[in-house]
């Protein structure tokens, strides 16, 4: 199979690329290196089945069709993430997350790919009204990042309906694992905490730490992506989560170290909790890596965050100023 991964140098994308190469796929990676890095694919960079292309999917001068020739599967992960930058630069987020997705969809459609997998975000649910949260729950994005990821999902489903492009969208819940980011919200909290732990600094816990998140290990997410691609299911949306929310206090206890508390951030739910019955029934997927095991794996790979920025209460307060300005009700 020939697979194309947009954002393949990023956190989730790099793990997916490694998995596809292991399964003997020929893999083409399109990435603009704005957030991803070549270091994420060091272990496979010399694989003859891997092609890396530094490409901005929004650049109108680039004919994306040229990179989709003979491609069977498309995994679209390229996107701008994080809450605060999306508030500060809403047009940039719309351009990359929405317009970029449409350009990738069109290239995939014109080249007749066999399956198009989109990575959506559970942030589309906003502050859910019920737990665990079903795919049919109310959509209530609270900031531009969440909105643009949801709008792009609607384009994906629309291309599936109108142009018969075989599409599936996966709404990911709080992904964590090796190479996780150190900016943004949960599960970027892992990258933040690990960089702080390496630097001997206190872990910055938002609020009282009792809020819980449906932390989902990256290898489980990769398996969900591959299962969706290999299935005959099309035109569907699936939650991808562990189904077992864990509190931030529990995470802190497993990581160890001192703690400092910072104010609650507006627009964030007290809990995220995926109802995963649909993906279990239709794709036969279920998470394999427990929260405790995932944290142990991260601690074994902690050196990855040696050069990462170390956040402090003061720098967090400064960086989230716009967040509090616009999202406080």
Which strands sit side by side, in order, in the main sheet? 3-2-1-4-5-6-11
Tell the overall outline: globular
Distance between the termini: 50 Å
Structural class: alpha/beta
The CATH topology annotation of the largest domain reads as Rossmann fold
Give the count of helical stretches: 11
Can you count the beta strands?
Answer: 13
Helical content (DSSP H or I, runs of 4+): 25-40%
Protein name: NAD-dependent dehydratase
Family: Belongs to the NAD(P)-dependent epimerase/dehydratase family.
Pfam family, one: Epimerase
Summarize the SSE layout with pairings.
Layout: E1 2-6, H1 11-22, E2 26-31, E3 50-54, E4 73-76, H2 83-88, H3 90-111, E5 115-121, H4 144-162, E6 167-172, E7 175-176, H5 189-198, E8 203-206, E9 212-213, E10 216-217, H6 218-230, E11 236-240, E12 246-247, H7 248-255, E13 259-262, H8 277-283, H9 291-300, H10 313-319, H11 321-327
Parallel strand pairs: 1-2, 1-4, 2-3, 4-5, 5-6, 6-11, 7-10, 8-13
Antiparallel strand pairs: 9-12
Helix pairs in contact: 1-6, 3-4
What descriptive keywords fit this protein?
329 residues; two-stranded parallel sheet; 13 strands; UDP-galactose 4-epimerase, domain 1; 2 domains; Rossmann fold; 7-stranded parallel sheet
């Amino acid at each position: 199979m020939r697979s194309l991964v947009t954002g393949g140098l990023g956190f989730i994308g790099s793990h997916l690329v490694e998995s596809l190469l292991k399964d003997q796929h020929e893999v083409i990676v399109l990435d603009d290196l704005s957030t991803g890095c070549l270091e994420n694919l060091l272990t496979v960079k010399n694989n003859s089945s891997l092609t890396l292309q530094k490409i901005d999917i929004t650049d109108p001068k680039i004919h994306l069709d040229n990179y989709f020739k003979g491609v069977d599967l498309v995994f679209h992960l390229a996107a701008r993430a994080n809450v605060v930058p999306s508030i500060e630069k809403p047009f940039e987020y719309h351009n990359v997350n929405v317009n970029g997705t449409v350009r990738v969809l069109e290239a995939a459609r014109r080249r007749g790919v066999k399956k198009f997998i989109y990575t959506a975000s559970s942030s589309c649910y906003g502050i859910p009204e019920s737990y665990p949260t079903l795919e049919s729950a109310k959509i209530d994005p609270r900031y531009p990042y969440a909105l643009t990821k949801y709008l792009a999902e609607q384009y994906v489903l629309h291309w599936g309906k109108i142009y018969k492009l075989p599409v599936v969208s996966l709404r990911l819940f709080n992904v964590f694992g090796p190479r996780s980011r150190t900016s943004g919200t949960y599960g970027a909290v892992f990258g933040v905490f690990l960089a702080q732990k390496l630097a001997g600094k206190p872990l910055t816990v938002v609020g009282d730490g009792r809020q819980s998140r449906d932390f989902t290990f990256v290898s489980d997410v990769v398996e969900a992506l591959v299962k969706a691609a290999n299935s005959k299911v099309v035109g569907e949306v699936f939650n991808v989560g562990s189904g077992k929310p864990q509190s931030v206090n529990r995470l802190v206890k497993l990581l160890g170290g001192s703690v400092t508390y910072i104010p609650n951030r507006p627009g964030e739910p007290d809990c995220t909790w995926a109802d995963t019955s649909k993906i279990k029934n239709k794709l036969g997927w279920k998470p394999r890596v427990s929260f405790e095991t995932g944290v142990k794996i991260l601690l074994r790979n902690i050196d990855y965050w040696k050069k990462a920025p170390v956040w402090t209460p003061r720098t967090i307060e400064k960086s989230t100023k716009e967040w509090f300005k616009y999202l406080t009700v």
